[in-house]
Design a protein that fits this description.
The structure is a single chain. This protein is about 85% helix and about 0% strand. With about 190 residues, it is mainly alpha-helical. It has a domain of about 100 residues. The longest helix is centred in the C-terminal third of the chain and has 53 residues. The radius of gyration is 26 Å and the shape is rod-shaped. The chain starts with a helix and ends with a helix. Pfam families: HAAS (PF22564).
């Protein structure tokens, strides 16, 4: 395979990333070839050293989504980066998807619990209309306000935990990508 064919295949496999990013990636590879020519290497030798354009494209796409997830820490960007990584190998499917689903389920349930606890005072107001005793109403109101306070604290803790988890998971994805890139360089 020659340089032009390599670049054409690489471009065709760089899907779901903006055109500007594709151009930057391709210009980096053109520079790589020019640098190799100055060192006296042949096109075939450089293409062989680089490896399969499809694998390179998958790694570059994963890297792109990982950078987006790091810039915009949202569930959508985290899922996009994760599912891009799942395509890189069976190891990722087993050791990333399971723990990710479990932790995201826990985070989701913590948000739901926090929200439910936050709206409990509304039920105390509803109880005022149904209760005959002011003392019972005040007891329910106090209990629901305590629940709302716990819900507020739980919500704040969940937000902090979510951010920490996103940061940790993105670092994990980066280290995983570096391992995959290292394996492919030696393959």
């Amino acid at each position: 395979m020659m340089k032009d064919e390599f670049l054409k295949k690489l471009r065709s496999h760089l899907v779901k990333i903006p055109e500007k990013e594709k151009q930057e990636i391709l210009s980096d590879y053109v520079e790589h070839f020019q640098h190799g020519f100055h060192k006296g290497r042949t096109e075939e030798e450089m293409v062989r050293t680089l490896g399969d354009p499809r694998k390179i494209a998958r790694e570059l796409i994963a890297d792109y989504h990982l950078e987006r997830a790091q810039e915009n820490q949202s569930f959508v960007s985290l899922f996009r980066a994760t599912f891009t990584f799942l395509g890189l190998g069976f190891f990722n499917l087993v050791f990333m998807l399971g723990p990710l689903i479990i932790v995201l389920s826990v985070i989701f349930s913590m948000y739901v619990t926090s929200l439910i606890l936050l709206i409990t005072p509304l039920f105390a107001i509803e109880a005022l209309l149904m209760e005959s005793s002011l003392l019972e109403f005040l007891l329910r109101l106090l209990t629901s306000l305590i629940g709302a306070g716990v819900g507020l604290l739980l919500g704040m803790g969940t937000v902090r935990f979510s951010r920490t988890f996103f940061g940790w998971f993105i670092r994990y994805l980066k280290s995983n990508l570096n391992i995959i890139k290292g394996v492919n360089k030696h393959a």
